[in-house]
Design a protein that fits this description.
CATH topology of chain A: MetI-like fold
Largest sheet of chain B: none
Number of strands of chain B: 0
Radius of gyration of chain A: 23 Å
Number of helices of chain A: 12
Strand content of chain B: under 5%
Oligomer: heterodimer
Helix content of chain B: over 70%
Strand content of chain A: under 5%
Distance between the termini of chain A: 28 Å
Shape of chain A: flat
Largest sheet of chain A: none
Structural class of chain B: mainly alpha
Order of helices and strands of chain B: HHHHHHHHHHHHH
Number of helices of chain B: 13
Radius of gyration of chain B: 25 Å
Chain lengths: ~300, ~350
């Protein structure tokens, strides 16, 4: 049976090659991940977010931008599950289209941020001396710029919009990664196995890439998943302040902002997009927790 | 040959200069950070806008005002001279004049800042005193239901958009249940009774013996600080749990247990002491981030702090005020980070 042999190959006591060892590690990680119900819920949430975003045109009646004034502010019911907003648009439809914007934001920001932060942090922590001082001053300067306020100032100068918001968020998000990678590198660099590698003549770049950086990855992954939620919340905050995506774009933060004035009598208008934000950032956090348990080589496994 | 004890003597002779060098290093890095900060605000304020004058005076200003500001900014001079002039003004505490209030931005910030300080401090304290025990409890009971409950509470607190949570909280606790006072720092009829000595209302009211005002201020403070504190609590609990799990899996813990040391002493005396070292940085980061995170909370609760000041200035196109506020928050952020870094170095022998 092919599956049995595959399973056997994946669980072999002694791996025959590097790639088999890697596959085994992934598979054993997956087995551990599967046993963690909280993490599986997180994975389900994020998977459904992606699926919903992909299937948006088939799940909704239209582009959720057209006003339908005859159906203004309808409460949640069988026809409109989440009710309708002040222009009579179906809130569920708008949330579904908004999921694409959310994915766009987190994807773009993490692609920019992780490599930059990891590189700077590992180099600073391992090499130390003036390189460390210079890089960490640079990091501190960016860390010193509170994310939301820098984004606000940037947007004030560049004009409101989704792209400017992403740029501003990325500019302020890489620095914690650098700090965390440096902290890890600082404690790793005095380890015996690093000394052993150096005595074997491994170059600094080799040590950084093969020994220091992989050990930083677990912290970076935990931080990234923590930050995924943070990124979503910052983007939503900017949208809420009217500085991110502009109406009629169904960005969730902007939807809450428009619905704020209906809070007391038509509670569902600002509440529903808020729940969407909560669920998605919760999903990233749950997933992150699960990944941490799987990929952190220090905590068993 | 040099006798062994002369090395010791030399070291003690060197002690004072070494300390001076260290202090000098801290001062130098603070200066560097300050220069970097101002370079970024300068870039945002003067270089990025197509027309910085227009960004400051707004499009309703007359040609005269426009020309005056143009010369005042020195826009006819090369850019590095403009930057040094800007830096010189900052060093004299001159953040420019706010278009919105007509006052110097520095004076405005001094008036608004204590409110933010009050809010962020109470929120951080909440996070520390609730979050740390929660995190330790979860780590000690890893995998059991109590761990899952703490994790889920923490995760929800960490995942909820703060402005949305604030809105829902106002709807429930103010409009529906009427348990707490609404937006703002005080009810209108208590305004300007207490002298603003520190600017921190609960402190001022207590000092003046105005207990009615004190209670009113607390009633206003509870909701926004809990909402802001939710984030601190969630973050601190999460990190405490994660650090604690790391420590509990170490061999020295096993040794302590094998030696028969009582479990509570293993947890609080051994593991937690090492966690505390790591938590210093986390608490510092949290406090600093709450100072800025209060922007959205202040907007929702009409809390007259620096966040509300910056937001309002932004919508009035008041660039001086926005950048002034950004610099002040940035300096606080750097200061707190550096302080927690210094503390970390003092207590953790591994990074000394």
């Amino acid at each position: 049976m092919p599956t049995a042999t595959l399973r056997g190959w994946l669980l072999a006591e002694v791996p025959e090659s590097k790639s088999q060892a890697r596959c085994q590690r992934l598979f054993i990680g997956w087995l551990a991940f599967k046993r963690n119900p909280v993490a599986v819920i997180g994975l389900l949430i994020i998977t459904s977010l992606v699926v919903v975003a992909m299937l948006a045109p088939w799940l909704t009646a239209g582009d959720a931008l057209e006003p339908d004034l005859a159906n203004r502010l309808r409460p949640p019911g069988s026809e409109h599950w989440f009710g309708t907003d002040e222009l009579g648009r179906d809130i569920l439809d708008r949330i579904i289209w908004g999921s694409r914007i959310t994915l766009y934001i987190v994807g773009l920001v993490s692609i920019i941020v992780v490599p930059i932060g990891l590189l700077i942090g590992v180099v600073a922590g391992y090499i130390g001396g003036w390189v460390d001082t210079v890089l960490m001053r640079l990091t501190d300067i960016f860390l010193a710029f509170p994310r939301l306020i820098l984004a606000m100032a940037l947007v004030a100068a560049l004009g409101p919009g989704l792209e400017n918001a992403v740029l501003a968020i990325a500019l302020t998000t890489w620095s914690p990664f650098a700090r965390i990678a440096r902290a890890e590198a600082l404690t790793i660099r005095s380890s015996d196995f690093i000394l052993a590698a150096r005595m074997q003549g491994v170059s600094t770049a080799g040590i950084l890439a093969r020994h220091v950086a992989p050990l930083c990855m677990s912290s970076v992954i935990v931080r990234l998943t923590l930050d995924m939620a943070g990124i979503i919340l910052t983007a939503a905050g900017l949208g809420f302040l009217g500085l991110g995506a502009q109406p009629p774009t169904p960005e969730w933060g902007a939807m809450i902002s428009l619905g704020r004035q209906y809070l007391i009598d038509q509670w569902w208008v600002p509440t529903m997009p808020g729940i969407a934000i909560l669920v998605v950032s919760l999903g990233f956090n749950l997933l992150g927790d699960g990944l941490r348990d799987v990929f952190d080589p220090k905590s068993g496994g | 040959m040099i006798p062994a004890n002369s090395g010791l003597a030399a070291a003690s002779n060197l002690a004072l200069p070494a300390k001076l060098v260290k202090v000098g290093g801290v001062v130098a890095s603070l200066l560097l950070t300050f220069i970097g900060l101002t370079a970024i605000t300068f870039t945002i304020g003067r270089v990025m806008p197509a027309d910085p004058v227009l960004a400051i005076v707004g499009d309703r200003a007359s040609q005269e005002v426009y020309d005056q500001v143009f010369l005042q900014l020195g826009l006819d001079k090369p850019i590095y001279i403009q930057y040094f002039k800007y830096l010189g003004q900052l060093l004299q505490g001159d953040l420019g004049t706010s278009v919105m209030t007509g006052q110097p931005v520095a004076d405005d910030i001094l008036r608004f800042f204590p409110a933010t300080l009050e809010l962020a401090t109470v929120a951080t304290l909440l996070g520390v005193f609730v979050g740390i025990p929660m995190g330790v409890l979860a780590a000690v009971n890893q995998g059991r239901w109590i761990d899952h409950v703490v994790r889920i509470i923490g995760l929800i607190g960490y995942s909820a958009p703060i402005f949305w949570l604030g809105m829902i909280a106002i709807l429930i606790f103010y409009f529906k249940l009427d348990w707490v006072a609404g937006p703002g720092r005080l009810d209108v009829f208590y305004d300007s009774i207490v002298d603003p000595v520190s600017g921190i209302l609960i402190l001022d009211a207590a000092l003046a013996g105005e207990w009615e005002i004190f209670h009113n201020a607390i009633s206003h403070l509870i909701l926004p600080s809990s909402i802001l504190g939710t984030f601190a609590l969630a973050y601190i609990a999460r990190m405490t749990r994660s650090f604690m799990l790391d420590q509990l899996s170490q061999e020295y813990i096993l040794t302590a247990r094998v030696k028969g040391i009582p479990e509570w002493q293993v947890i609080w005396g051994h593991a937690f002491r090492n966690v505390l070292v790591q938590l210093i940085t986390i608490i510092g980061l949290t406090y600093a981030s709450l100072l800025e995170g209060s922007v959205l909370t202040e907007t929702i609760f009409s809390w007259p702090g620096i966040g509300l000041y910056i937001t309002n200035s932004l919508f009035n196109n008041d660039m001086n005020a926005v950048l002034g506020g950004t610099i002040v928050v940035g300096i606080c952020f750097v200061g707190i980070n550096m302080l927690s870094d210094l503390l970390y170095k003092l207590v953790d022998p591994r990074v000394r």
